[in-house]
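Hey, sorry for the delay on this. The queue was backed up all week. Below are the sequences that define the complex (chains, strands and the ligand SMILES where applicable).
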Amino acid sequence: MRCDYHVHSSISADSKTSPDVQIQRAEALGLDEICFTEHLEIHFYRGAAWHVDLENYIEQFRHFDQSGVKIKLGLEAGIALAPEYFPELEAELRSVSCDYVLASAHSINNIDPFNPKFYEGKNIAQVFKEYIGSILTGIGQIDPQLFSSVGHIDFPAKGAHSEKDSRLFYKYAPDEIDALFKYIIPQGKCIEINTASYRNLDGFEVPGGDWLRRYVELGGEFVTFGSDAHMPEHIAYRFDDAVAMARRAGVKYYATYDRMAPTFHKL
Ligand SMILES: [Zn+2]
Ligand SMILES: [Zn+2]
């Protein structure tokens, strides 16, 4: 598996790595394809910088060196939004000819998992229940034609909690996970296996096994793989483990995208 579909660069507010450095690293790793997924957050509580400058992004993209690795134009669209903002997000997404859109939630009620307040008075199961519930609320409000995959459903695993084992288990939020999968699968959308949480969980078996099995049980056949790299050393981080886990869970394919159209590759 040689495609990383979740890569950030200094085009996003939270990375200092120039896109060229990410591209060179992908090339050095022998990847076939990467997709930049710069942050598109509208009305984000952390400020306007989290809204990628689309014009500048597209202009830079045009000049990327594609000779070593194929590069796709993607966005990570924040869907933790008040209902009235969805038309604005949709209009922005329609204004760009993206290859891939990852729909992700980065906060609940303007608190993100990197703020210890996010976990106050809750155990990790409750945190996941709320977090996945908030993804579901957001995903239900966006035109399904405008996104490809749902990002990092285990996002709180890497936040500022005090849990030793913060992996996501299906039993934490079975209703929310089922509802999310039952909503996206019939629409031809998929789930991302995001290996960023692996970076904090090195002592444990890789996360995701049981919720991914449930995804397959409910008819999910394909996934996307993303490292969520904001630094070059994280590109394709532990992808071998992620692929092994996906195979064990029975996932048949991974997808790459071209102008929002998926191509399926056997796992
Ligand atoms: Zn980021
Ligand atoms: Zn994200």
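DSSP finds seven helices and nine strands in the chain.

I'll add it to the shared folder too.

S.
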